[in-house]
Amino acid sequence: MSYTQTLLTGVVGALLAVTAHGADIAGAGSTFAAPIYTKWAGAYQQAGGGAVSYRAVGSTEGVKEIMESQVDFAGSDAPLSDDELARNGLLQFPMVIGGVVPVVNLPGIKPGELILSGRVLADIYLGKIINWDAPAIAAINPRIKLPDTPIAVVRRLDGSGTTLIWTHYLAQANSEWKSRIGEGTSVRWPRGIGGRGNEGVATFVQHLPGAIGYVAWDFTKQNHMSYTAMENASGAVVQPGPETFKAAAASADWSRSLFPILTNEPGANAWPVVGATYVLLHSTQNKPERGEATLKFLEWALTNGDQAAEDLDYVPLPPPVVSEIRTQLHARVKNPSGKAIAGE
Question: What region holds the PBP domain (predicted)?
Answer without folding.
Answer: 23-303
